[in-house]
Design a protein that fits this description.
The protein has 410 residues and is an alpha/beta fold. It has twelve helices and 23 strands. The chain has helices spanning 10-23, 35-40, 43-52, 63-69, 91-98, 109-116, 144-153, 171-187, 203-208, 230-235, 355-362, 366-371, and strands spanning 4-9, 29-32, 57-60, 77-80, 102-106, 124-131, 139-140, 157-163, 197-199, 216-219, 246-251, 254-258, 263-264, 270-271, 276-281, 301-306, 309-316, 324-327, 341-345, 379-382, 394-395, 402-404, 408-409.
Length: 410
């Protein structure tokens, strides 16, 4: 019924959360970011694993996302990053507010006044976002003192955090924006109590510049087992020992022998240099498999089962809406009747089919590669204790798509 599936190792995610916490400075809090349905991996399942692993605060973007997680992450605080001025009449949001677990972001005096006028029966925890160079959301460093003064006068608002968001992980930019944030904090120290969290770093700067860890780090891509680029893994001053948690698998549904000079795909962009064996994989850009950057000198690479292992093979021709073609000619020992499994996204950091390699070939952030995988593709959740799945093996699922501790069968 389905042409591919995405395996999400909840055990690896739990281990990443624990490893990140152990790699941080003492007292620094981990706040995993699970917006956009945890980058399309399933926020309810992923967030539940994070909380079980010790996460006590999560970040989402919208109030709807917060409401959807309310019952799944009982006990954890949820920070909604999108500035809002109205509190919807939603049972999940009401329960979060009543328990003091919902935290909102404020970036203007008008927004603070609007939220401060809402009668909720208790004070509303808020974080102030300060723009130190991102030029997106937040209050300017110039206007931040006035906003903090206004919040201090509103008894219905409880300031629990002040943060900024770096434009990236470039060391010079991080240092400059971090210094700007520090200068702002120094000028408003009299408005901040000792329990107000100061936070700035995401997955990249968290480990390439540990001085930016501060009181809390917002970890997005890191909890999946990857940092924002391969360079971050190589140059991290603190190595958290992350383990990638996601693979995307499909199968070859047709094998063909092409004559020399045969072309493949729309536009005839690839021509067989000689007699060549190719395989058809029923996945394309409609499923979220990314197309190459126009100036990419490389082809996409997938892994194909050969014997008992996996071998790299190039994707040839243009990727279609729901199909792609793999050159099998270089796979010595390939058996068309047996070797059918294909890994489109590998969980190996240095794989040519890994997240960073795909991201580089497409010229898009790795976050985009993950979040673009179509929602209609089944997500298969592997829990801690799940036995290894052999190449070409299958797994038994329950009605939720959870592999649980069921055995892999070849």
């Amino acid at each position: 019924m389905h042409t591919s599936h995405i395996r999400i190792d909840l055990g690896a995610i739990s281990g990443n959360i624990r490893a990140i916490g152990e790699a941080l400075a003492p007292g620094t809090v981990v706040c995993p970011v699970v917006k956009a349905d945890a980058y399309g991996l399933g926020a309810d399942r992923v967030a539940g694993a994070m909380v079980e692993a010790g996460a006590r605060r999560l970040a989402v973007f919208t109030l709807q996302q917060a409401a959807e997680l309310e019952s799944r992450v009982s006990g954890a605080k949820i920070l909604a990053l999108m500035p809002v001025e109205e509190i919807p009449n939603d049972p999940g949001i009401a329960r979060l507010i009543a328990s003091g677990r919902l935290e909102l972001v404020v970036s203007s005096v008008a927004q603070a006044s609007r939220l401060g006028s809402v009668r909720l029966g208790r004070s509303l925890p808020i974080h102030v976002e300060v723009d130190c160079g991102m030029g997106r959301g937040g209050v300017s460093t110039r206007d931040a003192p006035a906003l903090l003064e206004a919040i201090r006068s509103l008894r219905s608002l409880d300031l629990v955090g002040v943060f900024t968001h770096f434009t990236g992980s470039d060391p010079a930019a991080v240092a400059e924006q971090g210094a700007r944030f520090d200068r702002m904090l120094g000028g408003v120290s009299h408005l901040l109590g000792p329990r107000v969290l100061k936070h700035a770093a995401s997955s990249g700067p968290c480990f390439t510049d540990p001085s930016q860890q501060r009181d809390m780090v917002r970890i997005g891509l890191g909890w999946t087992g990857w940092l924002p680029s391969a360079a971050h893994h190589e140059h991290a001053r603190v190595d958290p020992g992350l383990r990638p948690a996601v693979t995307w698998r499909s199968r070859i549904v047709q094998v063909r022998e092409l004559e020399a000079g045969s072309t493949v795909g729309y536009g005839s962009r690839w021509t067989a240099p000689g007699p060549t064996r190719v395989g058809l994989v029923p996945v394309g850009y409609a499923h979220g498999y990314p197309t190459l950057s126009p100036d990419s000198p490389e082809s996409h690479i997938v892994l194909v089962s050969v014997g008992g292992g996996m071998r790299a093979a190039p994707v040839v021709g243009a990727i279609s809406m729901d199909q792609l073609v793999v050159d099998l000619g270089g796979l010595e020992g390939f058996d068309a009747g047996r070797d059918r499994e294909v890994i489109l996204l590998s969980d190996q950091l240095d794989s040519a089919a890994g997240l960073h390699a795909i991201s580089a070939r497409c010229g898009v952030p790795p976050h985009m590669v993950l979040s673009s995988m179509a929602t209609g593709i089944p997500r298969v959740y592997l829990t801690e204790g799940m036995p290894a799945i052999p190449p070409g093996g299958t797994i038994h699922l329950d009605a939720t798509g959870d592999a649980g501790r069921s055995k892999a069968v070849g």
